[in-house]
Amino acid sequence: MKAWVGVPLFLAIFGSPLAARAVCTPSPLGRDAPTALILTGGGAKGAYEAGAVALFAERGLSIQLVAGSSAGALNAAMIAAGRADHLESMWRGLRREHVYSHRASVLFAGLLPGWLTLLALDGATALLDPQPLRELITTSLDFEQIRDSRVRLLVTATDLARRELRAFDNRTVTADALLAAAAIPGAFPAVAVDGTLLVDGGLIARAPILEALETATVRRAVVVMSYAPDERGAPPTTVRRTLEEALETALLHQIRRDVELARFKHPAVDVQLLTPSAALRLRPLEFDPDSVARVLEMGRADAKACLQAWEN
Predict the structure, then answer these.
(1) Partner residues linked to 278 by β-bridges
(2) Contact in structure between 44 and 90 (CB atoms under 8 Å)
(3) How far apart are CA 54 and CA 272, in angstroms?
(4) Contact criterion met (CB below 8 Å) for 75 and 41
(5) Which helix (H) or strand (E) element contains residue 156?
């Protein structure tokens, strides 16, 4: 009998034909159970988790801590600042020009003869300018509200020079820290925070669940990720696609590994994995309004199904 019971658990963890429809597993805990939300971001894919966490907040989930990396860091900060009701409207109004602009020096390099292009790019700090994102952060967030919030915040960035994780909380988070947390290496420049250059926290902890559970006492942790269980990547037919899919694959498996490790290290915590019910079909730097709106609605619908799974 015990072996038979283990089969559904194995399928729930590692995938099955029904996995794409089962976005959460049943739970004995109610909505009032102290909960941590772990947000994995992914550029424009962060719209999915924005829809999900906005629905959770609306339905009265007892959110005690919210942690995030990459775009998930900004979503997390919005929740900690008490702006869950503004989260969706911010994403619906988001355009590419609100996140980044193209660097003139990089565009000029593309006009040079072959070897000069390589020489010019070799000295570039990044391909894109994140100044629009900095302005979005400063206009969307009141950091005093974050400092006074009852919801604990955890934001992660990466120190490439020391090859270690940097974590920020309600007291230490700044606009620079949030900008660094989403600074995709190569695409965006590293950001100086307290004299140290930092980049995207997703390199080390795309789903910072282990770090979150070490700093807070909760009964449930929900990891929101932007990959559907049966989603497949693009064929690696070009250099760009190969590099993109290699990074996405590494991050995906990092999330799954850390979720299972969290379940092992914290057996008293109900660790849930909320996955999209269908492939998002949205690239990280593709801030198309229609696609963002579609993904937001999917996040809301999947979060609603998640709550129903717990209640049933």
Answers:
(1) none
(2) no
(3) 17
(4) yes
(5) strand 152-159
Alpha helical stretches, state H, 83-123:
84-92, 104-109, 114-122
DSSP letter for 238, please: S
Type of residue found at 170: N
153 contacts 147 by C-beta, under 8 angstroms: no
Residue 275: phi, psi to the nearest 5? Answer: -115, 150
Residue 237 backbone phi and psi in degrees, to 5: -95, -10
Mapping DSSP to helix (H, G, I), strand (E, B) and coil, where does residue 39 land?
strand
CA angle 50, 145, 307 (to 5 degrees): 35
Q: In the structure encoding, which two tokens stand for residue 286, read together?
A: 């593709």
Per the structure block, which two tokens stand in for 85?
């009701």
Neighbours of 188 (CB within 10 A): 22
pLDDT band at 124 (very low <50, low <70, confident <90, very high): low
Provide the residue type at 74 as one letter. L
Q: Which two tokens stand for residue 298?
A: 């999917």
Residue 49, CB half-sphere, CA atoms under 13 Å: how many?
A: 33
How far apart CA 210 and CA 202 sit, in angstroms, is 13
pTM over 0.90: no
Q: What is the pLDDT of residues 195-224, one digit of tens each?
A: 999 999 999 999 999 999 998 899 999 999
